[in-house]
Write a structure and sequence with these properties.
three-stranded mixed sheet; four-stranded antiparallel sheet; alpha+beta; 12 helices
């Protein structure tokens, strides 16, 4: 018979050996895990105590693993600087507009991103830090830094570009021609910018650094002029005749003459209704001249020279004609206290019928001939005289390019129907403008009555940035490949201040404007 006892003993031995093997395996696994855990915690503790950023971390695609905070800041700043241009190029039709990053104060907050990277697996509980450390080590993390910029400066810059688009909205308007005619001009549709959309597009492009070597299309819509309000025009135009006079007691005051003006409102309304697509039309005014006019009381009414400013011009016949026409319109203008001077309203629409000629103007990214070219020299000369006379500037814009007759920050461009130069007389006494053009000099003088305390005023300007021009290749009839079509000229950014002194001491510095002048690209034929 079989020996069952012996078989049972062998089975017990096998079971003992198997259990013992399992136990040994479990112990070895436990020891190995303990070593791994201990090693990891030792490594993690070393990370906690180190000054280096952990592995698996990048900022904007730049690997900063194992770097100190200072090293990471320097590396990311250098890498991003190599990817980012100084300007964002906006385009509309065939026109380009540069937005300087410095102008809108755009920069990435690299320090904050590096601080965030450094503090990974350092700020939480032990368990949370360990989980974060492992997660970043295994999957990696790319931090997108916060973009900082001046929202107000960006908005103002886009609004300024809108005024320089070629398709300008022209509001319906009116002006007096030769004192006895009212000219009403119909409005013209123009292009407006979707400002918030363009702002977001610019910020998105900056955020992902995608704007380099690319053009951003300016999103636009059609703007429509306001309808012509004949009643409002009549209310503004109609006045009763009044003689000019001035008083010395109890105060020195000038009361300029007022010519009575009127027109038939119903006739004008009927014409507009029957001719909705008119360009402009002339209304004969009914004028009543008073017995004593302002010129009759002479300069005794304006005893003090408040300011004088002059600019030089080259005697190009057409341009000089335009200067004199605009200057003559301005000459003798009296502005009462609280009243606003409008260049466009005083000078009127510049037309061939009014005698204006073609001369050089800034247009289409360069210099070309245009009707009434040069009259901005008169508005710029008035602007400077008004600054020195302590007038309050209420509407003024700089040119696309710096003109030749004044330095940056000292010009005032005007465009009929869209861009005006205006200032308000906030003195307690009327002023009179005398303007002349002769012998290569445009002169504007402002007369009035000096205050008891009269400040010495100076104007300061500073160029804060140069915008380098680019080279373009264009196909143009009449030019051979490689031939120069247009020379390049750098653009620039200027700040201007009005400085008030009393007894030689500065008492106030008034910031006027920050003006950006576009670069004029060099164009070579292809």
């Amino acid at each position: 018979m079989p020996d069952f006892k012996l078989a049972k003993d062998k089975q017990i031995v096998k079971m003992f050996r198997r259990d013992n093997t399992i136990l040994i395996y479990v112990i070895m696994v436990a020891i190995a895990m303990g070593i791994v855990v201990a090693s990891f915690f030792a490594f993690y503790k070393n990370h906690q105590d180190s000054k280096f950023i952990q592995s698996g971390v990048s900022i904007k695609g730049v690997n900063i693993s194992g770097l100190t905070k200072e090293e990471a800041c320097d590396l990311v700043r250098t890498k991003l600087a190599g990817q980012m241009n100084e300007n964002i190029v906006l385009t509309y039709k065939n026109y380009n507009y540069n937005v300087a990053l410095e102008q809108i104060e755009a920069e990435f907050d690299i320090e904050a991103s590096v601080d965030f990277a450094y503090n990974i697996a350092r700020n939480g509980s032990l368990i949370q830090n360990v989980k974060d450390y492992i997660a970043v080590l295994m999957t990696h993390i790319d931090i997108d830094p916060i973009l900082k910029y001046n929202k107000l400066a960006l908005r103002e810059y886009i609004e300024d570009i809108e005024t320089k688009l070629p398709d300008q909205l022209e509001q319906s308007s009116y002006y007096l021609e030769d004192s006895d005619e009212l000219v009403i001009t119909n409005g013209v549709n123009g292009a407006g910018i979707y400002i918030e959309e363009l702002e977001q597009t610019i910020i998105d492009a900056l955020q992902d650094v995608s704007y380099s070597n690319k053009y951003i299309d300016i999103p636009t819509y059609t703007k429509y002029p306001e309808p012509i309000d004949v009643d409002a025009i009549h209310e503004d135009i109609f006045v009763a005749a009044q003689d000019a006079y001035f008083t010395k007691e109890p105060v020195y005051m000038v009361y300029p003459h007022v010519i009575g003006v009127d027109f038939n409102v119903e006739d004008v309304k009927r014409y507009i209704e029957e001719n909705p697509d008119f360009i402009d039309f002339t209304v004969d005014l009914t004028l009543t001249t008073p017995e004593i006019v302002t010129d009759d009381i002479g300069m005794e009414a304006f005893p003090h020279l408040l300011a004088r400013y002059s600019t030089e011009y080259v005697n190009n016949p057409n341009r000089t004609t335009n200067l004199r026409l605009a200057s003559n319109k301005v000459n003798g203008t009296v502005i009462m206290p609280g009243e606003t001077f409008s260049f466009n309203k005083v000078v009127g629409k510049r037309t061939e019928a009014a005698g204006y000629k073609n001369a050089a103007i800034f247009q289409d990214g360069g210099v070309t001939d245009g009707l009434a070219g040069g009259i901005c020299q008169i508005s710029s000369t008035i602007y400077n005289a008004a600054l020195y006379a302590d007038m309050t500037i209420t509407s003024r814009r700089n040119h696309m390019f710096i003109p030749s007759y004044v330095t940056g920050g000292r010009d005032a461009t005007v465009v009929w129907g869209s861009t005006d130069f205006k200032f308000r007389n906030d003195r307690d006494y009327p002023i009179k403008i005398e303007s002349s053009v002769s012998n290569g000099e445009a002169v504007v003088a402002i007369y009035g009555f000096k205050r008891e305390t009269e400040y010495e005023i100076s104007i300061e300007t500073q160029k804060v940035k140069t915008i380098n021009y680019q080279t373009e290749r264009q196909k143009k009839a009449g030019y051979s490949s490689g031939e120069l079509i247009q020379s390049g000229a750098n653009g620039s950014v200027w700040d201007s201040w009005r400085v008030y002194k009393l007894n030689g001491e500065v008492v106030k510095r008034e910031k006027l404007y920050r003006d950006t002048y576009s670069a004029k690209n060099k164009i070579i034929a292809r």
